[in-house]
Every structure is written in structure tokens, then in C-alpha cells.
Write a structure and sequence with these properties.
11 strands, two-stranded antiparallel ribbon, alpha/beta
């Protein structure tokens, strides 16, 4: 029995869009790029091609930010996407790799336990003991393969990686070379090779990048959505995509329910109501767009499996409280005050007020 994967890689999920763009892309392409820089930005932001093909937006925001990111990858500098949690850093990284290299799978996931071998190479120890260090015994890393094939390598959560491991990147990024001293050889990066790293701006002070490594990156900051309408559009689009992939047996959420979740998150993280008339206290969590997507998707699952299929305030309340109340001491007080002073007084929000108040 064959089963569909839960989430396809971007180059598979959007294969038709990428092919349509490539077929009509007559602009100059850097060596080994599948698309021109202009077409890559069109893929990310969405457009309608001359033949009528619709390219769906993957990133909703300032076009100039994406142009700077793509232009960086066409130079010898690497790209560092920086931002608070939930600003689509990993999402943009994946789609950049898919559009440029046709392969988003060359990925190093940064953690406190990431070692040098994740950046460079490892060894098949059975072969190493039997034959000593040979090319056959060498196990290449994603970075190794990206250099050898001229593709983009993604490094997630760069500042989570120990500083001494981060610095193994310096030679690869400046000299485009990966030394293999055990074999008295090296791998030289070929045309098309570059690195896209992501970092959480709230992780400052965890493992700061050395000045030498910082110089190898061009930093592009991905901001939170500038307007409520932009954030609602992002949440609506991603929820629709995830609901389809998960086959949730619920009706598409009413736009007003999404608007309420986004409004609550924006007000609590900014410390003021949307109209600017009232100040509110902010909880300890980030309340990102990604968390808003999760709240609505979880609500749809509740509505579909345990309700009548229609998303209600009751379905949203549990996920909303889970996202807002991270600190069990301070956050309940902050959220209760917000419920009493803002949500309770807002016309048409009594159901959300009751649903949250009864569960906090």
C-alpha cells in the first residue's frame, strides 16, 4: 500500500509552476541556476505569466527584500536570513533553494549538538577500520554535496550551532574549498554553490557569529507582516494549504475567525490595540504568524473531528491559550486583563471572550 507524504519538498509541490517559469524565462541566468534572478523573485512573490499560468505567492511582503536576497546569492557572498520566530525564514530558504538549484534537501539543521562532521564530512567507521581513510569510506555532508554539485546548501538556526563548529564554514565560504587532510585532498566548490543560513534574532548571545564569519554573509532581515491585511492573507493561504494536505474534514474557516486570531496576536505582541487607542501588556511568547496558522489549523481539526465542521470560537480557544500562555505565572494575568479590557468590550466578540475565559 502506498501512502502520500505529509509534506512534499518545494521543488516537487510546485514543480508545474517552476517548469512554467523556466519555459518563459528569457532573462540571464547565473551559472547552474534553473531560473533567472527575476524569475526566482516572481516565483516567491507570485505573478501571472503571459500564457495565463498563475504563480502562487510563497512570501507576502516587500519585493525589494526578496530582490536583495536573490541578488546576494548571485554573488560570492552567502545569505543570512534573520528575524524573530515565525517570519518565514525557513520557508523562504526552502523556496529559494528549490527555485535556484531545483533541490531544497541539502540541509544542515543547527542545534547545540551539531558537530563539525555535519558541516564537512563523516566516515563509515567499518570501512575506515578495514581500509583506512579512503574516498570510499568518506560520508559526505550536505555542504560537501552542495560544493561538489554546484547547488545551494541550507543551514538552519546558525546561531544555535557551537561557535567552533560555525567557524568551519569560513574556509568554505571565503575560499570555496573544503579541505580533506586525511586524504591530502580537497573539494572545490563549483559554479552555483552558495549557502543560505537562517538565524533567530531572539537568539542573540547564544552563539554569536565571529566577525570573520559575519563578513562572509549578507544579512537580510525578514520582518513581521507590516499590516493586518497582509498577515490575514498569509494565515489564510497557509491554513488552506495545510488543511488540504491533512485532509481535515472541516469547512474552510470564515475570514472573520482568522481576522480575530490575527488581531489578538498582533495586539498582544505590539502592546497596543489595532486602533492605537489603548495600551495592553504583552505576554512572554512571540505570537508569530506561524503560531496563528497553527491555532487556526488546530481549531479546524477540532471542528472537523469533534464538531459540526464549522470553526467556532470554542475551537480556537484552546490553541490560542496554548500560544499565549507560555509562562504559567505571568501570562495568565496578562491574558485575563486583555480579555476583560479589550475582548469583552469588542462588538461581536463575546463568544471568544467566554470561550477563552472559561479555559484559562
Amino acid at each position: 500500500m502506498s501512502h502520500q507524504v505529509l509534506r512534499q519538498h518545494a521543488e516537487i509541490a510546485y514543480e508545474a509552476e517552476l517548469a512554467a517559469l523556466a519555459a518563459q524565462d528569457d532573462r540571464p541566468r547565473p551559472p547552474q541556476w534553473n531560473l533567472s534572478p527575476w524569475a526566482v523573485v516572481d516565483y516567491l512573490l507570485g505573478t501571472r505569466l503571459p500564457d495565463g499560468t498563475e504563480i502562487s505567492p510563497k512570501y507576502i511582503g516587500d519585493r525589494r527584500i526578496m530582490e536583495i536576497a536573490v541578488a546576494t546569492l548571485a554573488t560570492d557572498r552567502s545569505l543570512l536570513l534573520l528575524g524573530v520566530p515565525g517570519t518565514a525564514k525557513s520557508w523562504v530558504s526552502e523556496h529559494l533553494a528549490a527555485a535556484i538549484s531545483g533541490d531544497s534537501t541539502l540541509l544542515v539543521q543547527g542545534t547545540a549538538g551539531t558537530g563539525e562532521e555535519a558541516m564537512r564530512y563523516n566516515w563509515n567507521y567499518a570501512l575506515l577500520l578495514a581500509k583506512g581513510p579512503t574516498e570510499e569510506a568518506l560520508v559526505p555532508s550536505p555542504m560537501f554535496n552542495a560544493m561538489k554539485t554546484g547547488k545551494l546548501c541550507r543551514v538552519e538556526e546558525l546561531t544555535r550551532i557551537p561557535s567552533e563548529v560555525q567557524d568551519t564554514l569560513i574556509t568554505m565560504l571565503s575560499e570555496k574549498t573544503l579541505p580533506i587532510p586525511e586524504l591530502s585532498s580537497e573539494i572545490q566548490g563549483v559554479e552555483g554553490f552558495n549557502v543560505i543560513a537562517t538565524a533567530n534574532s531572539r537568539d542573540r548571545g547564544v552563539n554569536e557569529l565571529s566577525s570573520a564569519l559575519q563578513r562572509r554573509f549578507n544579512v537580510v532581515v525578514l520582518p513581521l507582516p507590516s499590516s493586518i491585511e497582509a498577515e490575514i492573507e498569509i494565515v489564510s493561504s497557509r491554513v488552506a494549504s495545510m488543511s488540504k494536505a491533512l485532509a481535515l474534514p472541516a469547512e474552510p474557516p470564515a475570514l472573520e475567525e482568522i481576522r480575530r486570531v490575527v488581531t489578538v496576536f498582533r495586539e498582544l505582541r505590539s502592546g497596543a490595540t489595532e486602533d492605537g487607542k489603548s495600551k495592553v501588556k504583552s505576554p512572554s511568547g512571540t505570537l508569530s504568524t506561524a503560531e496563528a496558522i497553527s491555532v487556526v489549523t488546530s481549531g479546524l481539526s477540532l471542528a472537523g473531528h469533534f464538531g459540526d465542521g464549522k470553526l467556532t470560537a470554542l475551537d480556537l480557544a484552546a490553541g490560542m491559550i496554548g500560544a499565549i500562555v507560555k509562562d504559567p505565572t505571568q501570562d495568565p494575568v496578562v491574558f485575563k486583563e486583555y480579555l476583560e479590557t479589550v475582548v469583552k468590550e469588542r462588538e461581536g466578540w463575546k463568544d471568544l471572550y467566554r470561550a477563552c475565559k472559561d479555559r484559562i
